[in-house]
Specification:
Shape: globular
Radius of gyration: 24 Å
Length: 533
C-alpha cells in the first residue's frame, strides 16, 4: 500500500465555504477527502473555529446521515442531533447487556447515555478532529481508510478494508470505541511509532512518554503562582484563585495513545461545568498543540454544549515544548550567531546584532505578525523574542539537551519571568526609544541550540472575555512545520508554510495554567501544572 503520514431548524448549507465543497463527500458512512492536502486544508480552517462555524460546515453531512464520533453541539442544532443520535444511543444501551466490557452507562436514560462522548474524548481529545471521524472512528483520505481504536490507529487501502476487519477480529481488538478491547489483546499490540503489520496494514500509536528523574507529571498539589507572573502581580486574581480547584489533570486510560491530553473538569449547579484542557495531540494525519477553557451547559437532550458566561479567563503561566532538528556542526557559524536576538512586536521585527555596523546594533523591518509561523504568533499586541540559547550560560548548560525534567522546566520558567523579563525590557526600551515600554502578558520565547539540534519554546497566555463561553489558544497545528538549517548560508530558523526542508512536530509538552469562569458572582474552574512546578 502507499502510505501517507501525515428536526427543528434547517441549516443553510450555502454557508459552507465553497473552497471545501468539492473536497469532502460522504462515502460508505465516512467523510471522504480527495487527498491529504485537502484534509489538512479543511482541518486547518476549522481547528480553531467556533463550534457554531464548525457545525455549519458539518450540518449538510449530518442531514445526509453522517454520524460524527463526537458531534459539535450548539444551541441551534441540539434538537436535530438529539433526534439523529437517540436511536443510536438506545441501540447501544440494549447492546450493553450482551457485552460485559461495554463502556457506556447501563442506565436507559438518554441523558446518561450521552456520557460516552466524554469517554471517547479520552481517546480522541481534539474536538474538530473527532467531529470529522465517523461513529466508528474512521475517515477516508484518498485511497486510505484511517481507523482509530482504543489501542491505536490502523490504516488500510480502501480495497483492503476487509484485511483490517479480519485483523481486528482475529486479534480480539474492538472496532467500536464504546467497547473496550480486552487487556490480554492490548498486551499483544506493537510498540509505539509506525509499524507495518504487513503490506496491506499499517499501525500507529505514540511512543510511550519516558519518565525522567525529578519530573512531576500531574498529581494533585497546590498551585503556587510564579513570581512576577500576572497571577501573582494582578490583585484581581487573589479574589478568586483560592476558589478554583487544584486539579490532577487526567487523560483517561487511553490518553497517551495519541499524545498528551490533560483535562480538568469543575462541575457546578448540577448542569454546568468548566472544562480546562492542555493538549499535544498527534493523529499522524495532523497534530494539534494548545490550551482551552470552556464553560458548558447540559440541557434536556443530555448533550454538553458551550454556554456563554459572565466572564472567562484562560491564563497560561507557562507552556513549554521543544522540537528536534538537525544539528549544526559548524562551530564558527554557531559562534557568530550566538549574540543575535530577534524581537517581533507591533508588526515590526527588531534584530539586534552587536557586531553589526548599524546604530546600536539594531535593524528594523516591517512585517505582518500574521505572516509569522504559527509558533511565533501571540494574541493581541504580543511579543515574540528569538535567541540563540537562553541568554544565560548556566541555564543553557542545563536545558540545551531538552526540558526533560520538572526541575529544568521550572528553572526556565523562573528565568522567563525574572532575569529574562528584565533584560528584554531594557533592550526593547533602548531599541524603541521608549523608557516606559513594558512587555505584554502574551509572550513567546524561542531558544535555539544549533549544536544540539534543539528548539525550546516557552509561552505565556492571557486570554479573557465577557459574555462568551470559550477561550483557547493553539500554539501549533496542522501537518508539519519546517525548519531551514545548514552550515553554508543557512540561518537555522523556523520557516513558514511552504519553506524549509526539515519536517518537525512538537514534543515534551509541559504546562502550568488556570481556566476560570464567573457565573454571577461565583468563580469556577481549575488550576493545575503538568511537568512543571
Amino acid at each position: 500500500m502507499s502510505f501517507s503520514s501525515c428536526e427543528t431548524e434547517k441549516f443553510d448549507s450555502n454557508l459552507v465555504s465553497s473552497t471545501f465543497k468539492d473536497d469532502v463527500v460522504i462515502k460508505n458512512g465516512r467523510l471522504f477527502f480527495q487527498s491529504k492536502d485537502a484534509f489538512v486544508r479543511v482541518y486547518q480552517q476549522y481547528a480553531d473555529e467556533s463550534d457554531e462555524k464548525i457545525s455549519v460546515f458539518l450540518q449538510p453531512f449530518y442531514e445526509e446521515g453522517f454520524y460524527s464520533l463526537r458531534p459539535i453541539v450548539t444551541e441551534k442544532n441540539e434538537d436535530f442531533l438529539y433526534m439523529q443520535y437517540r436511536k443510536k444511543i438506545n441501540d447501544q444501551i440494549r447492546y450493553k447487556s450482551t457485552i460485559s466490557s461495554s463502556k457506556i452507562s447501563s442506565s436507559a436514560n438518554m441523558e446518561v447515555g450521552f456520557d460516552y462522548l466524554d469517554e471517547i474524548e479520552d481517546i480522541i481529545g481534539d474536538d474538530t478532529f473527532a467531529s470529522l471521524l465517523n461513529s466508528d472512528g474512521e475517515i477516508q483520505v484518498g485511497f486510505e481508510i484511517y481507523k482509530y481504536t482504543d489501542v491505536g490507529l490502523f490504516i488500510a487501502d480502501e480495497e483492503k478494508y476487509t484485511v483490517l476487519e479480519d485483523y481486528l477480529n482475529l486479534n480480539d481488538i474492538s472496532s467500536d470505541l464504546m467497547v473496550e478491547t480486552p487487556q490480554t489483546a492490548k498486551e499483544r499490540i506493537p510498540n509505539g511509532g509506525v509499524t507495518y503489520i504487513d503490506s496491506d496494514l499499517v499501525y500507529f500509536k505514540m511512543q510511550p512518554i519516558e519518565s525522567n528523574e525529578g519530573s512531576v507529571f500531574g498529581g494533585v498539589s497546590s498551585y503556587t503562582p510564579t513570581s512576577s507572573s500576572i497571577v501573582s502581580t494582578d490583585p484581581s486574581y487573589s479574589g478568586f484563585l483560592s476558589n478554583l480547584s487544584d486539579c490532577d489533570p487526567h487523560s483517561g486510560i487511553f490518553g497517551s495513545l495519541f499524545g498528551d491530553n490533560n483535562v480538568c473538569i469543575d462541575a457546578y449547579e448540577t448542569r454546568r461545568r468548566v472544562k480546562t484542557k492542555a493538549f499535544n495531540y498527534n493523529y499522524l494525519l495532523v497534530y494539534h498543540l494548545g490550551v482551552k477553557c470552556v464553560n458548558q451547559y447540559r440541557g434536556w437532550t443530555g448533550f454538553w454544549r458551550v454556554e456563554a458566561t459572565d466572564e472567562i479567563r484562560l491564563v497560561v503561566e507557562a507552556a513549554q515544548f521543544e522540537y528536534d532538528v538537525d544539528k549544526l556542526l559548524n562551530s564558527a557559524m554557531t559562534y557568530n550567531q550566538l549574540q543575535e536576538k530577534a524581537y517581533y512586536l507591533n508588526d515590526k521585527k527588531i534584530l539586534y546584532q552587536p557586531n553589526s555596523l548599524t546604530i546600536g546594533g539594531y535593524t528594523y523591518t516591517d512585517l505582518n505578525h500574521s505572516s509569522l509561523n504559527q509558533i511565533f504568533q501571540n494574541d493581541g499586541l504580543g511579543l515574540t523574542f528569538e535567541f540563540f540559547g537562553t541568554g544565560w550560560p548556566l541555564l543553557d548548560d542545563a536545558v540545551q539537551g531538552g526540558i526533560d525534567s520538572s526541575l529544568k522546566a521550572s528553572k526556565l520558567n523562573e528565568y522567563f519571568y525574572n532575569g529574562l523579563y528584565s533584560s528584554i525590557t531594557a533592550q526593547l526600551r533602548s531599541a524603541l526609544g521608549n523608557n516606559s515600554y513594558t512587555p505584554p502578558a502574551n509572550r513567546t520565547f524561542v531558544a535555539k541550540f544549533p549544536h544540539t539540534g534543539k528548539v525550546i519554546i516557552q509561552k505565556s497566555v492571557l486570554n479573557q472575555g465577557l459574555n462568551i463561553g470559550v477561550r483557547e489558544k493553539s500554539f501549533d497545528f496542522g501537518a508539519e512545520i519546517k525548519l531551514s538549517a545548514g552550515d553554508s548560508g543557512g540561518t537555522w530558523e523556523i520557516s513558514n508554510i511552504g519553506a524549509g526542508d526539515q519536517l518537525i512536530r512538537p514534543k515534551n509538552f509541559k504546562v502550568k495554567m488556570i481556566g476560570a469562569v464567573r457565573h454571577g458572582s461565583e468563580w469556577h474552574g481549575s488550576k493545575f501544572h503538568d511537568g512543571i512546578d
